[in-house]
Every structure is written in structure tokens, then in C-alpha cells.
Amino acid sequence: NFERVHVPYEPGGADQGRHAVIGDINGDHIPDVALGGKGGTAGFWLNETPAPEGGVQLRVDLRPTSTAWPATGASLVATCDGQVQTRMQTSGGKMGGVQDTAIFIAWPECDGTPEVEIRWPSGAVSQHVADANSRILAPEPEWWAVPDDAPGVVRLNPQAAGAGEACVAGASGD
Q: Considering 29, 93, 110, 111, which has the largest number of Cβ atoms within 10 A of its Cβ?
């Protein structure tokens, strides 16, 4: 159920949309729809679907560190009471614009605690536990860093990427 609402910056905007994106316009953890149109017009539809009794809803916001933003290719496996949901970040924003890259997951028959494993494009793996009906700000583990106190040095932490070791080649490729 969606209810058409006025554009915050242009009341009465035309509905000649060409580019639709899904995001959480009003911060209620339920995806809404924005539609960009011709001549700078836009429309917003707030999702008025009532939350079901029981169950768990979750919003995951990926915060890449080594991976470029948005984290296209990141895959999520989320479980709640043994029920498994999978998602993948498949695209970013449009040229000249940005869309919400949140990932929404719901378990209508779950009363437990949701757990999420994220496999980042960099190879890093992160684990997250969330409260029911909440939002996870999921940072990518930093498996490499250039420390401020040591210019020209790269520090590696392969365990943050789920690896046991790191292979390093010199400037000559050896």
C-alpha cells in the first residue's frame, strides 16, 4: 500500500517520472518509492503498509571502507530462528544522482534475534547481530590501512578479511 505525498521541495510536482528508486524516505525502516521526472519534477510515494503483528524487519546499511561505494557485489546471508534470507547489493545510483543503498529483510514468522553475515567485494567478511525491527550500520572490516604515523607503509590484517595470511608482491612483481 503506497500513498502519494507531495514532494518536500516542490509541492504539486508533476508525475512524468522516468527514474524510480527505492529507499526509506521517512526513516520508518520500510522501503518507499521516489520517481524522478522530466524537467526536474519528482514524486514520492510513502509506503503505508502496516507492519504485521509479530515477525522481524531489518534494514542493513553497508558502510564500505576498502570496497568502493556503493558496495556493489556485497552479499548478505541473514538468519532468524533458522529461517535464511539472502540479498546482494546489485547497483548504485544513477548518473548524476544517488539512491538509498539500504537492504531490507523481513521474517514474518520469526520471534528471535536476526544475525547477518556480509561478504564484501574486497574479500572481507563481517558478522552482525541486531535487535528485532532495527537498523544495522554495517562497516566493512578494515583489512589494510595506511597509518598516519608511518607514511609509505601499508599495514595488513588478513584475519579481518577472513584470511589466514596475505601475499605481498614487491614493485618488480616478485
A: 110
Which pTM does this prediction carry?
Answer: 0.69
Alpha-carbon gap, residue 109 to 2, rounded angstroms: 24
* Grid cell listed for 3: 500513498
Pairing of strands 2-5, 42-47: antiparallel
pLDDT digits (tens, 9 = 90+) for 123-153: 889 999 988 778 899 999 887 778 888 878 8
Q: Report the alpha-carbon distance of residue 156 to residue 149 in Å, rounded.
A: 15
Q: Long-range contacts: 30-39, Cβ < 8 Å, 24+?
A: 30/57, 30/104, 31/102, 31/104, 32/2, 33/2, 34/99, 36/94, 36/97, 37/13, 38/14, 39/14
Q: Name the region of 107 (left: φ>0; alpha: ψ -120 to 50; beta: rest).
A: beta
